[in-house]
Design goal:
By secondary structure, the chain is mostly helical. The chain has helices at 18-39, 49-69, 85-97, 105-128, 134-145, 148-156, 160-180, 191-213, 215-230, 236-240, 244-247, 249-280, 283-303, 310-324, 329-345, 354-366, 390-398, 402-419, 425-447, 463-475, 479-500, 514-518, 531-541, 554-560, 590-593, and strands at residues 373-376, 379-382, 547-550, 566-568, 581-585, 600-606, 609-615. The strands form two sheets. It has a five-stranded mixed β-sheet.
Length: 617
Amino acid sequence: MQVTRHPSASSGSTRSDRPAHSLIRLTALLLVLVLGFAVTRQYGESWDELQFYKYADRALQAYSTWLHAGTIPLTGNTYDNYGPAYVMVVALGARLLGMVLPWITSDLRHLLYFVTFVVGMVAFDAICRRWLSRPAALGATLLLATQPLIWGHAFISPKDIPFMTFFMLSLFFGLKMVDSDPGISFGAMRPQSRRLLLLFSAAGLTAIFILLAATPLAHAWLQRSVRAAAAGELNFISRFATDIHTSGPEVYVDRYFVLFLRAQVSVAVLVWALLAVMWSRIPSARAFLLNLVPASLLLGVTTSIRVLGPFAGLMVAAYALRRSRLKALPALLASGIFAAVVMYLTWPYLWPDPIGHLSESVKVMSDYPWRGQVLFAGATYASTALPRAYLPVLLGIQLTEPVWFLFAAGAAIASVDALKRRRGPSTALLALSAVWFFLPLLGFIITRAPLYDNFRQIIFVLPPVFMVTGLLWERVKQRGWQAALIILVVLPGIVEGVRLHPYEYVYYNAFIGGQQGAFRRFELDYWGTSYREAADYLAAVAPANASIWVEGPAHLIQVYARPDLKIFSPYEAERAPRYDYIVALTRFNLDLESYPGAPIVHAISREGGLLTVIKKP
């Protein structure tokens, strides 16, 4: 990754302009927060949020059951392989927020998603200003934030937008950590003291690693020893477990395993405390730790959201090695260890077998076993057999029309600078987009990694595309023209967002004919958020105690349904003799297959794209 910054990156522009730019940014931030607060309750719950928060509750329970019973609650499905850090925080945050804001839990979560998105946009702007002037960075930020696809996901996604936000936070604080690393000076220490410090650090960290990795081995060894003692063999267990024949061996396995876990935690805390005290006595190390801690903490949490999180760490490591070469290794090693500890602490599924379960999660997430069919260009595919054109086409038709023209212009500017061997912000951003955007994009295309729900899983690779667009604003020197250009390119996203609200995430641009052109050719409301509007309609017209048949995610209707309504779905064993209304998404053509002869009494659509129908048999 290139190191060169924008000439005015530290100031963004002249000193006289700084208060004005700060005021503009603060005003925009407040307006966006107020707008988000005002519209949050218009977004429906997304299809798999319920399962994620059931998983979050189990993960939170693990903090009490692990050290008391040596067990963690499991979902029994692939949700265990997701890092739960973010959804745990949102689950706790929604409970606290509910004490002061009388909203339903789903809306409280959506508000926290949106705040996370806004934090991500602040981080994006801060990263941009490393290489772009303040006006160009602001333009790139506004263009990203007003993408209907991004804005819509900001309220309903517990995974993709939060991961993008934490990825950018990890990158920003990681780069800041590298910039602040002066190289730890041992000059004031005696050689013997320096050797003892490094030796104890290596020994302590190794001990913690062995203790964590040995968790499954310790449990297996205890099982063998206790069962041998119960069978009459003399060992250390039989000397202490005098009533093993009456209590049963499993009681002693659990008892001794819990003791091992408590000892494990005690040793880890003691070692970390000693290391913190010893290293904090070195002035240069103490100053560096103030930057290392947030960078490592965020990287650990990012990895505990999605296993692709370490990619942000690799980008930071590439920058550090290019900047300081081998001198950067101690800082990178310390940061990596701290991040790994944070990941471990925030991901209970790893606790019984850290290495084994992490390897399992990487494998599962790399080849995710999604069994549905993906709609693309009017045909359906398995998620593991998508055509090579899948990502390029969707990227071309789901971002607003100016984006790729601006990106091409910015890339051309950067390429000319590179050919003329001008080392500067443009070549740095070109290198950044190659590593952050093109490299993972090619990886997904070549390996044909499983994808579904369009490309929401790789939204995190989009930020560098918008950073490169800022290079065009850099070439426009007059501030009035800069402002006019920003308004011109941001306006299409705002207009389409208003038209599609609250289903902005189903956006398709004019290249495919908008939502009407995408209907039944590409996915629209794949998360079923339009079921909230369907529930509102039923609440207004359905007779008392009416029976409602709901195709697909019936629980989304249940969240908002009138209390007296009886909701039935294909997942329920119980069937009603007749139904007063039928609700069906257009996804998977459920609207065509469910009660095909029943007349439609209400349709939910946006710009020619039909999302949900309500029928009356």
